[in-house]
Amino acid sequence: RFSGNTKISKAIRKQGTRHTSSMATKVYIVYYSMYGHVEKLAQEIRKGAASVEGVEAKLWQVPETLQEDVLSKMSAPPKSDAPVITPNELAEADGFVFGFPTRFGMMAAQFKAFLDATGGLWRTQQLAGKPAGIFYSTGSQGGGQETTALTAITQLVHHGMIFVPIGYTFGAGMFEMEKVKGGSPYGAGTFAGDGSRQPTELEMEQAFHQGKYIAAISKKLKGPAAAP
Predict the structure, then answer these.
(1) Residue 34: pLDDT band by 50, 70, 90 thresholds?
(2) Is 42 among the domain residues?
(3) Alpha helical stretches, state H, the chain
């Protein structure tokens, strides 16, 4: 039914030229965090992305969907001062790293609600061809780290985005067997346990690596800026 949608076809034809207005490669780390575990990974991912020359990395939160009284009953701490992103602001970025806690093997509803509001970007294919990675937090081992990443990929596919897993580029850290470690070839991760466990040094190192890795790929895909 969309074969005759000229807005989509025009947007696709513009893919090669739309990012040449700025020298810096913009990488947005967009996340939802209820208890702070995902946010800690996000902060480290931003540091990793910012370590790549010519990359401008920025943290964004998605809007909360729960009322304050509900969050209070859930003992959720106050939100950080990271700005809340709107769907249209996604179009400004050259690459993304999306992060969220797991709810029954899938991304939290707050992040899904945000993505559900990106229909305008889908209609014009403004995110097509842009690289994106995924990171996550679960309550336990086997609590859905890989299923959360797998089910999140569908969101990227419909926008025409390029999923960028970290694979085994983190090296020996991917094979840690003596200590509990979150994350997988799909992306960085952590285990929250009962809420008291915080991301470990190794998990934070993997998050930094993911940010640096995806930022470098985003920079390559953007290519050199057009001459004035």
Answers:
(1) very high
(2) yes
(3) 6-13, 37-50, 68-73, 109-116, 119-124, 145-159, 201-222
The tokens of 136 are what? 């996550």
Q: How far apart are CA 126 and CA 154, in angstroms?
A: 17
Query: C-alpha dihedral over 146, 187, 163, 32, to 10 degrees?
Result: 90
| Residue 7 is assigned to a structural domain of this protein | no
What's the structural domain count of the chain? 1
- The pLDDT value given to residue 224: 76
In a domain, 141, yes or no: yes
Q: For residue 50, what is the domain's CATH number? A: 3.40.50.360
* 173 contacts: CB under 8 Å, gap ≥ 6: 181, 202, 205, 206, 209
Q: Is the pLDDT of residue 213 over 70?
A: yes
What 8-state DSSP symbol labels residue 90?
A: G
Close Cβ partners of 156 (under 8 Å, ≥ 6 residues apart): 132, 162, 163
Coil, strand or helix at 27? strand
Q: What is the DSSP letter of 183?
A: -
Average pLDDT, the chain: 90
Judge whether 10 lies within some domain.
no
pTM: predicted TM-score of the whole model, two decimal places: 0.87
What tens digit of pLDDT does each residue of 167-188 get?
999 999 999 998 999 999 999 9
pLDDT digits (tens, 9 = 90+) for 92-142: 999 999 999 999 999 999 999 999 999 999 999 999 999 999 999 999 988
CB 145 within 8 A of CB 163: no
- Domain housing 39: 24-222
